[in-house]
């Protein structure tokens, strides 16, 4: 029962409650940006391929957490070109088509050219085709200008540029008392070099080079005089290289860099299955999601790792990496191995209150950049998440089941044991059998679950809860971690340890049912506060109890029913917070918005308990949302307004796009609807009661691999039934269909 005596006032969360709140003091001038990423570098452009200090101020070329290019603007006769179109191709190459506006002061070499008014060059005479990509710390751009007029043309093409060397946290809105100083620019020939010496002692340089010598070159402008006959074209190549510390990146020519970029992406794609459907917009969603994941996956010394999101979270996040790898595990298990290897290597070994670190804990976030190096933000290596540690064990078990790779599992078993020990010891702060969080670091995160806004945990009247906080979904993750730990222990011949973990899991399940179930709201409560009072609020967190398997079957069905009600399901997906709750706000970050990864995990949980209808409904809603999104790109989140006819979803102003776990959501949603499981050791692929969303009549999975075997399977709708056909089978693999 809800306890109205707990509090008497409702507190509003303010930006000052969150020291690293992302400020949004202005709207984006356009809801469509163009994003590139490779390695430790990413770039955000406007739709015309320019970087200008407008809107939220997030445009720029960033490297290792610092903005190395804050202005990059092509100009025709000192005017901005007009945009024709732009996109980012599946190989993560930016394409822009521009043309001249009506220009009044062009130098026309033929005086007989007709002019409508004093030297006017009519719009749409010059086509500017731009192509750009990132490779190994360098932005490569090529501009091809072509004269479609009837007379010779003498035209000035310029590039305006600047580098402010703002730390990503400055861009997000975190103030600084002091900054380093800019170095004297070096300008000459066909290159300009800008520089900055940070308070951390690091020298950061931006080297801008051109394939032809500019007519005029300063520390902020390069101008080229182009003489073009009718139909003639001229090409200019620009490289912008980010140099950090003592490293001087090797600069490849444009063609070589483009070829290596394409080859690397094609090699990664060739290792994954191919998904084809009867619905072209659905295929485009799959293609964009695949391309976004390829963009976000980063080579590290420990293997591949999906950085979280652009622009705010392009770095290692433990929780994001674990859940992204889990979402695409059936599709690309190599990523999970890289994530597990990296997080095992960075697992905390000692207590460090400034980092919220405790032995066995999995890292939350790792940052480069001046502010992290100086400790102005605590995220150089920060451990303030309560759920990454059990999720590490969950992914370890899922990876072994998917691949049968027992040797790798054995190599990280000590890390698994340390994670399980953290759950038993430091994770359970008061010894009540639940895992709680409360920050140790004075500058760390207040909320340490996946909903890490300061106002994300509260009682039913909206009053914020006092910690330590035991979140609903975290107990489910711990349950799943112990179950997976027990299974893995048996595989390694540790039967006594397996029995202990099974016993702990069952005790937690029974304790969870007693403490977290709320009969009045027909779902599990959001959390228990420090006094073990329940936050009886209807949230999406309860859906994760289905994902983890901790929920009892009867209550799982009731949770599913609650989440699929109109007050929780917006029409696009399940809201983070039910619309009947006090803090519901469809425009908030965590209190009413729709998060694709959240929905994908819930859909898998519903399928686990036989609610395939719920999984199909979620997939169908998010697919419909994708058709109204630029590039069919699934963002980190969007607003939770109820779906309106003939309109797309309402965008959230500072959402990351791309965001790895949002891009990966479609793969887990398909797995849930198809009932897909893969047993690497048993060389078995299973489909349990496969269903398709109403938008698909046919779906093919090609090159689906288990070990060294490979199959092509096709799902075809026949009325209300979905049939499976095996089109090709190579190697030893069993395909099982449960109807």
Task: Give an overview in words.
- With 739 residues, this protein is an alpha+beta fold.
- 27% of the residues lie in helices and 25% in strands.
- It contains 16 helices and 33 strands.
- The chain has an eight-stranded antiparallel beta sheet, covered by helices on one side.
- Helix 5 crosses helix 7, helix 9 runs antiparallel to helix 10 and helix 13 packs antiparallel against helix 14.
- The longest helix is centred in the last third of the chain and has 22 residues.
- The two termini are 40 Å apart.
Radius of gyration: 27 Å
Mean pLDDT: 93
Tell me about the largest β-sheet: 8 strands, antiparallel
Helix content: 25-40%
Secondary-structure class: alpha+beta
Which key terms come to mind for this protein?
globular; 4-stranded antiparallel sheet; 16 helices; about 750 residues; disordered N terminus; alpha+beta
Please describe the topology of this protein.
Blueprint: E1 34-38, E2 41-45, E3 60-63, E4 66-69, E5 71-76, E6 82-88, E7 94-99, E8 126-135, E9 138-147, E10 153-162, H1 168-172, E11 181-188, E12 191-197, E13 203-210, E14 216-217, E15 221-228, E16 233-244, H2 254-270, E17 274-277, H3 280-296, E18 297-300, E19 303-306, E20 316-317, H4 318-327, H5 333-345, E21 365-366, H6 370-374, E22 381-382, H7 388-403, H8 406-424, E23 470-471, H9 472-491, H10 495-516, E24 517-518, E25 523-524, E26 527-528, E27 534-535, H11 544-548, H12 553-564, H13 596-608, H14 612-626, H15 660-663, H16 665-674, E28 676-679, E29 684-688, E30 698-706, E31 709-718, E32 721-730, E33 734-738
Parallel strand pairs: 29-33
Antiparallel strand pairs: 1-2, 2-3, 3-4, 5-10, 6-7, 7-8, 8-9, 9-16, 10-15, 11-12, 12-13, 13-16, 14-15, 17-30, 18-19, 20-21, 21-22, 23-26, 24-25, 26-27, 28-29, 30-31, 31-32
Helix pairs in contact: 4-5, 4-7, 5-7, 5-8, 7-8, 7-9, 8-9, 9-10, 13-14, 13-16, 14-16
């Amino acid at each position: 029962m809800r306890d109205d005596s707990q509090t008497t006032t409702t507190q509003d969360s303010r930006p000052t409650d969150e020291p690293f709140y992302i400020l949004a003091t202005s709207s984006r001038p356009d809801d469509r940006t163009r994003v590139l990423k490779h390695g430790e570098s990413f770039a955000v452009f406007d739709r015309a391929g320019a970087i200008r200090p407008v809107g939220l101020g997030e445009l720029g070329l960033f490297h290792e957490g610092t903005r190395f290019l804050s202005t990059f603007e092509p100009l025709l006769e000192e005017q901005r070109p007009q945009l024709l179109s732009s996109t980012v191709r599946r190989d993560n190459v930016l394409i822009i088509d521009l043309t001249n506006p009506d220009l009044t002061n062009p130098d026309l070499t033929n005086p007989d050219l007709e002019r409508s008014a004093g030297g006017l060059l009519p719009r749409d005479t010059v086509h500017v085709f731009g192509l750009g990509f990132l490779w190994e710390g360098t932005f490569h751009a090529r501009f091809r200008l072509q004269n479609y007029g009837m007379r010779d043309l003498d035209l000035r093409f310029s590039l305006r540029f600047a580098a402010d060397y703002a730390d990503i946290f400055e861009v997000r809105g975190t103030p600084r008392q002091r900054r380093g100083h800019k170095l004297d620019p070096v300008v000459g020939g066909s290159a300009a070099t800008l520089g900055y010496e940070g308070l951390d002692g690091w020298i950061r340089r931006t080297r801008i080079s051109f394939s032809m010598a500019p007519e005029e070159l300063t520390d902020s402008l390069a101008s080229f005089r182009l003489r073009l006959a009718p139909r003639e074209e001229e090409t200019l190549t620009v490289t912008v290289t980010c140099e950090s510390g003592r490293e001087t990146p090797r600069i490849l020519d444009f063609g070589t860099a483009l070829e290596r970029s394409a080859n690397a992406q094609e090699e990664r794609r060739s290792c994954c299955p191919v998904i084809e459907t009867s619905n072209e917009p659905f295929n485009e969603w799959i293609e964009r999601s695949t391309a976004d994941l390829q963009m976000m996956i980063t080579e590290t010394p420990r293997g591949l790792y999906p950085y979280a999101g652009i622009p705010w979270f392009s770095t290692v996040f433990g929780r994001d990496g674990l859940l992204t790898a889990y979402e695409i595990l059936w599709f690309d298990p190599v990523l999970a191995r890289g994530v597990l290897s990296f997080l095992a290597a960075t697992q905390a070994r000692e207590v460090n209150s400034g980092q919220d670190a405790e032995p066995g804990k999995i890292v939350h976030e790792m940052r480069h950049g001046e502010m992290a190096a100086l400790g102005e933000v605590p995220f150089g290596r920060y451990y303030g998440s309560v759920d990454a540690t059990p999720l590490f064990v969950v992914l370890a078990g899922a990876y072994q089941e998917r691949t049968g790779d027992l040797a790798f599992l054995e190599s990280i078993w000590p890390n698994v044991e340390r994670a399980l020990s953290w759950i038993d010891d430091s994770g359970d702060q008061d010894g009540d059998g639940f895992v709680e969080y409360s920050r140790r670091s004075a500058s760390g995160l207040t909320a340490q679950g996946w909903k890490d806004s300061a106002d994300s945990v509260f009682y039913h009247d909206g009053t914020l809860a006092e910690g330590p906080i035991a979140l609903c979904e975290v107990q489910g993750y711990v349950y799943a971690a112990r179950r997976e730990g027990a299974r893995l222990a048996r595989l390694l011949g540790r039967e006594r340890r397996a029995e202990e973990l099974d016993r702990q899991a069952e005790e937690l399940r029974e304790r969870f049912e007693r403490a977290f179930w709320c009969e009045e709201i027909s779902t599990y409560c959001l959390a228990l506060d420090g006094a073990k009072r329940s936050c009886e609020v209807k949230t999406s967190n309860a859906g994760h109890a289905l994902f983890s398997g901790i929920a009892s079957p009867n209550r799982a069905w009731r949770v599913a029913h609650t989440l699929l009600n109109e007050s929780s399901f917006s029409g696009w997906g399940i809201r983070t917070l039910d619309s009947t709750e006090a803090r519901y706000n469809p425009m908030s970050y965590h209190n009413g918005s729709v998060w694709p990864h959240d929905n994908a995990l819930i859909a898998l949980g519903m399928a686990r308990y036989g609610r395939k209808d719920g999984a199909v409904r979620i997939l169908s809603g998010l697919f419909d949302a994708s058709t109204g999104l630029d590039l069919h790109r699934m963002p980190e989140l969007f607003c939770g307004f109820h779906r309106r006819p003939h309109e797309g979803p309402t965008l959230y102003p500072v959402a990351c796009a791309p965001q790895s776990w949002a891009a990966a959501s479609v793969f887990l949603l398909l797995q849930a609807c198809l009932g897909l499981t893969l047993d690497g050791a048993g060389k078995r692929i299973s489909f349990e009661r496969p269903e398709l969303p109403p938008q698909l009549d046919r779906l093919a999975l090609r090159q689906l691999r288990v070990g060294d075997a490979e199959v092509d399977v096709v799902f075809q709708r026949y009325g209300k039934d979905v049939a499976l056909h095996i089109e090709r089978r190579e190697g030893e693999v069993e395909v099982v269909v449960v109807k």
